[in-house]
Write a structure and sequence with these properties.
With 339 residues, the protein is an alpha/beta fold. Helix content is 45%, strand content 20%. The chain folds into two domains: 243 residues, Spore Coat Polysaccharide Biosynthesis Protein SpsA, Chain A; 70 residues. The protein is built from twelve helices and twelve strands. It is globular, with a radius of gyration of 23 Å. The relative contact order is 0.12. The C terminus is likely disordered.
Length: 339
């Protein structure tokens, strides 16, 4: 198999503490020929100056650094693709540390089987467990996602994937208008166009622990907000291929397991309040006991309960995006031009 040039692209904003470890892991990749394109998306910290120290050649791998005004991850990825020269374009995130064989493992399966037209290859992201309950929850959740993932995937994940340049050109690259989940949009467009995404669990990318509860909840809200857009544009269960077959989503979140905790808690609280105001003893005493047990169960699953609230918050924001026609949504109701 001929070895074409592969470009690794990484974008960052205000990530000074992660840059050195990330770029070092990229210049330790075993695959050749390789180039690294790094884009700073308008950092306010010293990230750009740290990144520029890596500009040049390391281990025979050229590293080129570019910067732009803060325009978002999709715009940064597009700039990186534009500046790159590889036949394949890999993407990762600045808070990731790819295994040295990451690119080699993805390239080893890039020919596919039979007449498969492989347009993208995705690996496996492993979140460090960290020291907090939230970081362990996140690590376990991601591990469950990958554990049963099939070879033919529906998502080329942002931290650990590579795309054929021609495929990115055909689908128009990453949409800067999309609020989040730009990797999922491109992936589903690839499948719509007849391309195949291969998943290989041997192409490993290590992700730093997601230890902050506020960051975790903010990201889960953002995921839910983007999910509204994905479902609206591509359908509820999957994406239709050119032959009419639906390719089902294979990277399903644990959100389905926790999303109903918040509404169930509200329902239980409402029933308890109604019962306390309506019924007399001893029924009232029973209701009080049930309410205490109910509160105990919620507290015991506190992080998952907050996760559920974040999902509903994101869903509400997603619905508002539809109404207002923002963040990649077409307007729900278009006003006719006034003549």
């Amino acid at each position: 198999m001929d070895h074409p040039l592969i470009s690794i692209t990484v974008c960052m904003r205000d990530a000074e503490e992660w840059i050195d470890d990330c770029i070092e892991s990229l210049v330790l990749q075993t695959y050749r020929p390789l180039e690294i394109i790094a884009v700073d998306d308008g950092s306010a910290d010293s990230g750009l100056s740290i990144l520029e120290r890596w500009s040049g050649e390391h281990n025979g791998i050229p590293v080129r650094v570019f910067s732009q005004n803060p325009m978002g991850l999709s715009a940064g990825r597009n700039l990186a693709v534009e500046k790159s020269k590889g036949e394949w374009v890999a993407i990762t995130d600045i808070d990731c540390r790819p295994d040295p064989y990451w690119i080699s493992e993805m390239f080893s399966v890039s020919d596919g089987l039979g007449d498969e037209e492989v347009w993208a290859v995705t690996g496996r992201t492993i979140f460090e467990k960290g020291e907090t309950k939230i970081s362990k929850l996140r690590s376990d959740s991601i591990a469950r996602k990958y554990s049963g993932r099939p070879r033919l995937a529906s998502l080329a994940n942002g931290p650990c994937s590579m795309f054929k340049r021609a495929a990115l050109d055909q689908v128009g690259g990453f949409n800067p208008e999309w609020y989040h989940a730009e990797d999922m949009e491109v992936s589903l467009q690839i499948i719509q166009a007849g391309g195949v995404i291969i998943h290989t669990p041997d192409a490993i990318v290590n992700h730093i622990a997601e230890s902050s509860k506020s960051v975790f909840l903010r990201k889960r809200s953002r995921d839910a907000r983007a999910h509204v857009r994905i479902r609206r544009k591509f359908g509820k269960h999957g994406v239709r291929k050119p032959n009419g077959v639906i390719h089902l989503h294979d990277f399903v979140s644990d959100a389905e397991r926790v999303v109903w905790l918040f509404p169930i808690a509200l329902l239980g609280l409402s029933f308890s309040m109604f019962s306390l105001l309506t019924f007399q003893s001893p029924i009232r005493n029973g209701v009080i006991l049930v309410s205490i047990i109910w509160v105990f169960l919620i507290v015991k699953r506190g992080n998952e309960f907050l996760w559920s609230i974040a999902l509903w918050h994101g869903a509400i924001l997603g619905l508002s995006d539809i109404i207002l026609g923002r963040n990649g949504h077409r307007k729900l109701v278009k006003r006719e031009d006034q003549s």
